[in-house]
Write a structure and sequence with these properties.
Elements (H helix, E strand, L loop, with lengths): L5 E2 H8 L2 E3 L5 E2 L1 E2 L9 E4 L6 H6 L4 E4 L10 E4 L3 H9 L11 E2 L4 E2 L4 E2 L4 E2 L4 E2 L4 E2 L4 E2 L4 E2 L4 E2 L4 E2 L4 E2 L3 E3 L4 E2 L4 E4 L4 E4 L2 E4 L6 E3 L4 E2 L4 E3 L6 E3 L4 E2 L4 E2 L4 E2 L4 E2 L4 E2 L4 E2 L4 E2 L4 E2 L4 E2 L3 E3 L4 E2 L7 E3 L8 H11 L2 H18 L1
Parallel strand pairs: 4-5, 5-6, 6-7, 8-11, 9-12, 10-13, 11-14, 12-15, 13-16, 14-17, 15-18, 16-19, 17-20, 18-21, 19-24, 20-25, 21-26, 24-27, 25-28, 26-29, 27-30, 28-31, 29-32, 30-33, 31-34, 32-35, 33-36, 34-37, 35-38, 37-39
Antiparallel strand pairs: 1-3, 2-7, 22-23
Length: 343
């Protein structure tokens, strides 16, 4: 927990909440309702945890006005408790501050440009013609390829690989092991032998994007792969060449988009979901877990696929019956026609 802490009134101002109780109460950290101790702030945003709300030892709780009557202690009343909690975490972030300057072991090409306010970690390499903006943090072992651009206030963790010709906007966060700008999976078959299609495009990352650990974004074959502003990608996400992701789209772990697919704004891809190549997905589409969007989607809404979980013997019986669905439908239609003729 932070040594000095923050008073409730300060936290309320930061998260846009109203104080109920002592505005001078000092908070030293955040925790769950179940594990919170004296001096810690918690939040209540899910009715499933109402019992924990009644029993919590938290010094104060962030909650909505509609839930305020269920908690008698100090509180921060917010219109959206979960969003307010998210904002509060920024006040207690424990990420160590980066040291401005270039580590002696870093290798910066003479033609590269690095802002004086940037923090360049150990064993970083910055290629020819690359540009590193103001207050950028490059973690140890990260590589920035030739002619790539990293905008102001980006934070790139250790061992990230940015290939050549990648353009990254301002305020982007990239976690360890991510790879941006590797070749897309492009090959032509020449009588049984694969001929490589050299990937001639780049990658464009918009402002405020967050990219999870070990996520990969392939460069375009012709033209660029584009990730628009505000997109959030979890760990182990795969974005194929020439994909275009619209603003504020979110993708959970192991989701994947195949090449040359366009995804609209404010879409959500749950874990292990994705889309095939060369299709177009409109704005405000939700792909539930393990759902593959196998054709273009023109109507917003939630889409699902795959069999539901069941005990294995029952699941196998249902899966086997799927093979007979077409035959069953034809038999039903014949019966309906026969009944119609008899009536």
């Amino acid at each position: 927990m932070a040594e000095s802490g923050r008073v409730l009134s300060e936290i309320a101002t930061h998260i846009g909440a109203t104080v109920r109780g002592d505005p001078t109460l000092r908070i030293y950290g955040l925790n769950t309702l179940k594990d919170a101790r004296v001096g810690e702030l918690s939040f209540f945003a899910n009715s499933a945890y109402r019992d924990q709300l009644a029993q919590t030892s938290a010094a104060a709780v962030i909650l909505a006005a509609s839930d305020a009557s269920h908690f008698a202690g100090h509180a921060l009343i917010a219109s959206d408790a979960y969003v307010a909690y998210a904002r509060a975490t920024a006040l207690f972030d424990t990420t160590p501050p980066a040291e401005t300057g270039v580590h002696p072991s870093a290798v910066i090409h003479p033609t590269a440009t690095v802002a004086a306010s940037a923090a360049i970690g150990a064993h970083v390499t910055v290629g020819a013609g690359a540009s590193i903006g103001e207050r950028v943090v490059l973690g140890p072992g990260t590589s920035i390829g030739a002619n790539s651009v990293v905008g102001a206030d980006c934070r790139i963790a250790a061992n990230v690989t940015i290939y050549h010709g990648v353009r990254i906007g301002a305020g982007v966060v990239i976690h360890g092991g991510a790879v941006l700008g590797a070749d897309g999976f492009g090959f032509a078959n020449d009588g049984g032998r694969w001929v490589k299609i050299h990937q001639l495009g780049g990658v464009i990352i918009g402002d405020g994007v967050e990219i999870g650990a070990c996520t990969t974004i392939d460069r375009g074959a012709l033209g660029d792969t584009v990730i628009e502003a505000g997109v959030i990608l979890d760990n182990h996400v795969q974005i194929g060449h020439n994909v275009h992701l619209g603003e504020n789209t979110a993708m959970a772990a192991y989701a994947a988009i195949a090449g040359s697919t366009t995804v609209g704004k404010n879409c959500i891809f749950a874990g292990q979901s994705g889309a095939v190549g060369h299709v177009s997905i409109c704005d405000n589409v939700i792909a539930h877990a393990r759902c593959t969007l196998s054709k273009s989607i023109t109507r917003p809404g939630a889409y699902s696929a795959d069999l539901l979980m069941d005990e294995t013997p029952q699941w196998r019986r249902n899966a086997a019956r799927f093979r007979h669905l077409d035959e069953l439908v034809r038999r039903v239609k014949k019966l309906e026609n026969k009944i119609g003729d008899e009536s």
